[in-house]
Design a protein that fits this description.
This protein is α/β, with parallel strands linked by helices. The chain folds into three domains: about 130 residues, Chitobiase, domain 2; about 325 residues, Glycosidases (TIM Barrel, Alpha-Beta Barrel), CATH 3.20.20; about 170 residues, no CATH class. Helix content is about 40%, strand content about 15%. The chain has 23 helices and 19 strands. Strands 9, 10, 11, 12, 13, 14, 15, 16 and 17 form a nine-stranded mixed β-sheet that branches. Strand 10 and strand 11 form a beta hairpin. Helix 1 runs parallel beside helix 2, helix 7 crosses helix 10 and helix 19 runs parallel beside helix 23. The longest helix is centred in the last third of the chain and has 23 residues. It is globular, with a radius of gyration of 27 Å. The two termini are about 55 Å apart. About 45% of the residues are buried.
């Protein structure tokens, strides 16, 4: 994962053992990224297999190596650029493997594919050990822009956690790290020209310029571009704490711990604003080598502009009819500054206004409508709508979103922010040239409810499913295949060093009193956090401890999803002919576990809020077992049973208890719905 563009499976396998070696030839022998990637490869193989293969690196192509890597052409000097060649071919035979690529980036992508193919030998009579299957792959990405937007303003993410995220991104062939570095809650970069930005706007939590360079180099070694975002003119409180003269109102400013859209805006009518931004953007443009620079531009509440007499007079004297026109004026001024410093501006889709230069890239968080509208007008664009990982949607939903297709509805009863716009039409409305303007997309992780401790679980493994949508052919859409491969990819990513599983286990262990609690593990396995922004209504802030059970469970319950699939399989067989024993066993185990977990829940004040959840699980299991009894016997229940039971179950389907959802509830409802109604 991502599934390659073309795969031919052959018989046999290539052993990975003590004699494993790598040979580099062509431009790969001198390209530093390829050489560093091969050294990382040895370390990762040793970690996963226990085989000390690090010493078997043959730098020049002398033949006889297990894996021969051939790169045809040298690349241009750094930095990496949009559209750089990432194609590769991988051929694995019983006697050796050949990885060939036109440019070094293709070799990096092919190395990840080879590593993911390494597995333990299985089957009767098979010699224990590791190998890769024989096959031939021809692979290339569908989209050139495949990214992750990571917010580090709401909760600061230390360098080590950022670099671990880059490791995962590289493994699934993502190539853009969009670093959201300023917002109302914090300004996270050292500015030497304007030091009060970090001194007053960060609570001391920011990256030094040396750390920024370290992350950029780390990402570059893994074939990932780093694009900074500094949000303006809205989401700007952290700018204004140190430099209040930039603001659209007088008085002092304080960075906020709360979430939402705030009124504090940069004043677009002062020449001082543009002199300041010219100095700051020039400093940051020198620090971040990528050709693109993100200025945010979203969610501008114009109240302060409307209330400021000086700003209103400026609008009248410049024939700016409304706040949208003033925002467009600001964007055009900033774009000229960004271009002066050698960068292409990116903005969220609110920046799309008349007279905006066509060099600006539009990032759509509101949906395909904005993306395709921009393409029709000649703007390149990237899609983030539908890929908001912080909304806790399942992998299936994100996997079903395509930059070039009408999106499905968001799961649940509420609409996500990306569905708050009119129907987008179809990509068929775009000419072939306009379709090329859609560069790809970015998943987004906003950090209101994520911390360094649970960040990995918020990203992975769902981000791998999004990465496949950006890389793999458009026809790669089989959901069952995706989930089967996602399971093994998830385990592989843990070998890489990610902590999406182990980190949450440690959190639950802490809640259970310092030792692993099997009843708590079973109980948590069928729960999910509430979706979308419903927890924000509970007045969460960036200082709220995220240390409860809801914070220690993944966004998607595999156990509950598999139960729902078992229910569908059982109900697909004629009534009375299916074997319900496995379903009965699951429900009985979950019901019994609610008794065992209650003492654990009572033992910690952080867990007692989940006692009603245990009661609800027990009730759901009882109703499910009753339904299976009727379905298995063919007998109809009493005249009111079905109606009354459905009403009870509906009290749990997509309904929060505290901050969690019981995700076996939809499966139980299907069982009850399938029970024949009693005859009058």
């Amino acid at each position: 994962m991502p599934w390659p563009a073309g795969v031919t499976v052959q018989s046999g396998s290539l052993p990975v053992n003590l004699t494993f070696s790598v040979s580099l030839s062509g431009a790969g022998a001198t390209d530093p990224r390829v050489k560093v990637a091969v050294n990382r490869m040895f370390v990762r193989l040793a970690r996963q297999t226990g085989i000390p293969v690090r010493s078997h690196f043959v730098e020049q192509g002398t033949g006889g190596a297990t894996l021969n890597i051939i790169v045809e052409e040298r690349d241009h000097p750094p930095p990496q650029r949009l559209g750089d060649d990432e194609r590769y071919a991988l051929e694995i035979a019983t006697t050796g493997a050949r990885l060939s690529a036109g440019r070094p980036l293709g070799a990096l992508r092919g190395i990840e594919t080879f590593l993911e193919l390494v597995g333990q030998n299985t089957g009767p009579g098979v010699t224990p050990g590791f190998s890769v299957p024989c096959l031939a792959i021809r692979d290339q990405p569908r989209f050139p822009w495949r990214g992750l937007s990571l917010d580090v303003s709401r909760h600061f993410i230390p360098v080590g956690d950022v670099e671990r995220t880059l490791d995962g991104m590289s493994a699934v062939k993502l190539n853009v790290f969009h670093w959201h570095l300023s917002d109302d809650q914090g300004f996270r970069v050292e500015s030497r020209r304007y030091p009060r930005l970090q001194q007053y706007g960060s609570h001391g939590l920011y990256y030094t310029q040396a750390q920024i360079r370290e992350v950029i180099a780390y990402a570059g070694d893994r074939g990932i571009r780093v694009i900074p975002e500094f949000d303006m003119p809205g989401h700007a409180t952290s700018w204004l704490t140190g430099y209040p003269e930039l603001g659209s109102r007088s008085g002092a400013f304080e960075i906020t711990a709360g979430y939402g859209i705030f009124n504090d805006l940069i004043d677009p009518t002062k020449e001082y604003t543009y002199r300041f931004l010219d100095g700051f953007i020039g400093e940051m443009a020198a620090l971040f080598p990528d050709a693109f620079f993100h200025i945010g531009g979203d969610e501008v509440d114009p109240k302060q502009w409307n209330d400021n007499p000086h700003i209103q007079e400026f609008m009248r004297s410049h024939d700016l009819a409304d706040p949208k026109a003033l925002h467009a004026y600001f964007n055009q001024r900033v774009q000229r500054i960004v271009a002066h410093h050698g960068k292409h501006m990116i903005g969220w889709d609110e920046v799309l206004q008349p007279d905006l230069p066509k060099s600006v890239v539009i990032q759509s968080w509101r949906g395909q409508h904005s993306l395709w509208q921009a393409a029709r007008q000649g703007y390149q664009g990237i899609l983030s709508a539908g890929y908001y990982l912080n909304l806790m949607y399942p992998a299936a939903y994100h996997y079903g979103i395509d930059p070039m297709k009408v999106p499905p509805s968001a799961p649940g009863s509420h609409a996500g922010p990306e569905s708050a716009e009119p129907a987008p039409g179809t990509p068929a409305d775009l000419t072939p040239e306009q379709q090329k303007m859609v560069l790809g997309g970015e998943a987004a992780m906003w950090e209101e409810l994520a911390t360094p401790e649970n960040l990995d679980a918020k990203l992975w493994p769902r981000l791998a499913a999004v990465a496949e949508r950006f890389w793999s052919p458009e026809a790669t859409t089989d959901m069952a295949s995706m989930y089967n491969r996602l399971e093994s990819t998830n385990r592989w990513l843990e070998w890489l060093g990610l902590t999406q599983h182990s980190g949450l286990v440690l959190m639950r262990q802490r809640l259970a009193g310092g030792k692993l609690s099997q009843p708590l593990e079973v109980f948590a396995s069928i729960l999910e956090p509430v979706k979308e922004y419903s927890r924000h209504a509970e007045n969460y802030t960036s200082s709220t401890p995220l240390n409860r059970l809801v914070d220690s469970i993944p966004p998607e319950s595999d156990a509950a999803r598999e139960f729902r699939e078992e229910v569908d399989a059982y109900l697909s067989i004629p009534t009375g002919q299916g074997n319900s024993e496995e379903l009965k066993g699951l429900l009985a185990d979950w019901a019994n576990n609610t008794q065992e977990v209650r003492p654990v829940l009572r033992s910690n004040s952080l867990l007692t809020e989940n006692l009603p959840v245990a009661d609800a699980v027990a009730a759901l299991c009882d109703m499910g077992e009753q339904a299976l009894g009727y379905l298995g016997s063919g007998n109809a229940p009493g005249p009111d049973w079905k109606q009354q039971t459905l009403a009870k179950v509906d009290g749990y389907v997509d309904k929060r208890i505290g901050d969690v959802l019981i995700q076996i509830a939809p499966g139980v409802r299907k069982l009850v719905e399938a029970v024949p109604s009693a005859h009058p």
